[in-house]
């Protein structure tokens, strides 16, 4: 067993307890920031678009989505949310709706998500090939990773695995969303985007944060 493996298996009970504590802390912060409510608020306009589209076509779907976004924005402002956050949420729906007008098709509402999935797949895949995993670069910029880790090679190996997980995440989106988009299956495309869009992204971000932090804690305790 090499030194890395020895550090990995050191005090598994303590490591598990630490991970549970981190999860509890992370969930507490998420709730304190009204994360679940923000996800529901973000999903409501998309659900409105699907309902309007199914009932009367793309134009009605766009109208319903924008109406819901504006109403929710007003409610969130009265609830105390910042103007910048609320404006950003409404702007996203406006951009999605604009693509319906540009393309003249209901599936255009999901074109930004399809394009984002393709771009992110390429980015994460490319950094794996170059040997500079994207998650490592991002983690250092947001100071989740120390500027000079004790074992830089081990941290780089960890981030290759994390970056590969993100590559698979986005590639799965491409594998599902692109065929649905090309086949003009708007309802199926919208349903997939609702379930595996923002909610799944939040979960992936949380798991990544937990993964990076827990590994750093284990190695710091073993040092």
TrEMBL record:
<feature type="transmembrane region" description="Helical">
    <location>
        <begin position="109"/>
        <end position="131"/>
    </location>
</feature>
<keyword id="KW-0472">Membrane</keyword>
<feature type="transmembrane region" description="Helical">
    <location>
        <begin position="50"/>
        <end position="73"/>
    </location>
</feature>
<feature type="transmembrane region" description="Helical">
    <location>
        <begin position="188"/>
        <end position="212"/>
    </location>
</feature>
<protein>
    <submittedName>
        <fullName>DUF3159 domain-containing protein</fullName>
    </submittedName>
</protein>
<dbReference type="InterPro" id="IPR016566">
    <property type="entry name" value="UCP010219"/>
</dbReference>
<keyword id="KW-0812">Transmembrane</keyword>
<feature type="transmembrane region" description="Helical">
    <location>
        <begin position="164"/>
        <end position="182"/>
    </location>
</feature>
<dbReference type="Pfam" id="PF11361">
    <property type="entry name" value="DUF3159"/>
</dbReference>
<feature type="transmembrane region" description="Helical">
    <location>
        <begin position="85"/>
        <end position="103"/>
    </location>
</feature>
<keyword id="KW-1133">Transmembrane helix</keyword>
């Amino acid at each position: 067993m090499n030194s890395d493996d020895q550090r990995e298996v050191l005090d598994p009970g303590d490591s598990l307890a630490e991970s549970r504590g981190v999860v509890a802390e992370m969930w507490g912060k998420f709730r304190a920031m009204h994360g679940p409510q923000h996800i529901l608020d973000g999903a409501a306009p998309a659900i409105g678009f699907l309902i309007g589209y199914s009932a009367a076509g793309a134009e009605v779907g766009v109208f319903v989505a924008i109406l819901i976004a504006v109403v929710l924005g007003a409610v969130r402002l009265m609830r105390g949310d910042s103007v910048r956050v609320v404006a950003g949420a409404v702007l996203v729906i406006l951009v999605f709706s604009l693509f319906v007008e540009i393309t003249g098709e209901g599936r255009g509402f999901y074109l930004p998500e399809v394009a984002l999935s393709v771009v992110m797949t390429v980015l994460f895949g490319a950094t794996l090939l170059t040997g500079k995993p994207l998650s490592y670069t991002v983690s250092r910029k947001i100071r989740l990773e120390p500027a000079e880790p004790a074992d830089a090679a081990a941290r780089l190996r960890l981030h290759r695995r994390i970056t590969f997980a993100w590559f698979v995440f986005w590639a799965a989106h491409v594998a599902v969303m692109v065929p649905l988009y090309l086949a003009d299956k708007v309802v199926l495309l919208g349903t997939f985007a609702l379930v595996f869009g923002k909610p799944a992204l939040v979960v992936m971000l949380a798991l990544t944060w937990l993964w990076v932090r827990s590994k750093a804690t284990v190695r710091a305790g073993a040092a």
